[in-house]
Amino acid sequence: MCLRFYSLLKRLVPKFPEKNGKSYPKIFLKTSIKEAISILYDSYRAEIHEVFETETEKEQVALAIWDIAHRRDDLTRERQASLEVAEGLPVLFEQGSYELPGVPFELEAHILTVPFDRAEDWCDRLDGWEVYYDAVIPRDLPVVDFVMSDLSVEELDTIAAEVSRSLPMTFGQHECDINGDGFTQPCNVLTVPKNKAEEWIEKLTANGISVEVMENLQVPAVVELVLPDLWSSNAEMLEARFGQNRIPDRLSLHGQVPHDLRITPSPELAARTQSEVMQGKAALAYLLMTEQICNLLEQHQVDQIRVIGLRHNDYANENFDRWQGRTCTFSVIAMEMEPNHPQYHRYNGVPAIQVEEGGVLGVFAPESAKLPIGTRFTAMIEDMTRSALSLNIESESIRIREQEQEPESAQKSQLAVVELAGRRVREKEGGDRQQSASLQKRSQSADYEL
């Protein structure tokens, strides 16, 4: 039996067309691709039903396909390698354009780039300062980019001062418009971390050196001290002391990362970020073994979910210590945001957990089990941090809203979600056969989108 499973999976899984991972021949029209994929799935189903005759065998096939398609690789070595490289990288704080995953345009934002080994600490800091950010793991560096598009002056100064602690001082000649008339001239410039700026201004002026202070808009963590009348002896001294230093930038980070490094964050870090590296998994088991997977999933019970984003919703200022061990009723709602909100395209319509007759608590963590919009349940609050908590659910309390007359296409798209929540679709024993036959009919006639 195992050999038959293996030989079948070896043929099926590599052929399964991923949405994000494979491009299709341009000679096909969209309808042709749909027809070709539908025929392919039908042929796989026919082969499975021919080779495996009993329901027990078919369920075992469904579980095997599920395991192959969704199993996490052992990435211990890759995680350790990414962490070791990250330990040698500096923290950056820059201003510029950034394209967030899933957002169709670039944002003008401040970008705090933090290596993996310090990223969780910075998550906690930013949450503690109540700074709103998007955390993204880029595909080519072992870092987390904290993208902040609406920093206040106080938040900007706080982050810049913290980052400046690890930055070096530099000295060199730059073209400067010191008169503000649009004409530049070469000037001696001492670039100083923001936390040391006042100290160095006092030192220079005490020695009779005139100083013009210029903000560096692209690198907010430093201040440029223009020294227009610097004596040559003082210039030589500063050159010898700071002339070889460089303020790190993103290009310099790439030079420190091996080209063959597989960027792999820890599970804890991946749960708190978006990623351009970790791709979604194929739904091959759903498509080929719909009925068997639904039969297995309807026996599944959701007993715990993880909620994140506490600091960015209605309970941002709440002391959750007094919630420990408390049992409350919750609802899953669709997040509603104003169209002009900077996070509208990412979060509007996303399922969120709301306290019954209260405010929005947060959203589902990426690694957490999830429940569909409209679900009500009772749970005990436990395992709290600054920005996350766990809800231990009383499984018998889960109630999923009944859907009124909906188009057949909407019913198809919601079927798997409802089953994943652990609710039995067959509400009445007398309707078991009818619904099972309906499900089988829909699974055979469904036109799956690419």
Please provide a written account of the structure.
- The protein is α+β, with helices and mostly antiparallel strands.
- It has 15 helices and 15 strands.
- The protein has a 6-stranded antiparallel beta barrel.
- It is elongated.
- It starts with a helix and ends in a 5-residue tail after the last helix.
- Residues 13-30 and 403-450 have low confidence and may be disordered.
Mean pLDDT: 76
Structural class: alpha+beta
- Report the helical percentage: 25-40%
How many strands appear in the DSSP assignment?
Answer: 15
Number of helices: 15
Please give the radius of gyration in angstroms.
28 Å
Order of helices and strands: HHHHEEHEEHEEHEEHHHEHHEEHEEEEHH
Distance, first to last CA: 32 Å
- Overall, the morphology is elongated
How are the strands of the largest sheet arranged? Answer: 10-13-12-11-14-15
Query: Stretches where pLDDT falls below 50 for ≥5 residues?
Result: 13-30, 403-450
How large is the share of residues in beta strands?
Answer: 15-25%
The main β sheet shows up as: 6 strands, antiparallel, barrel
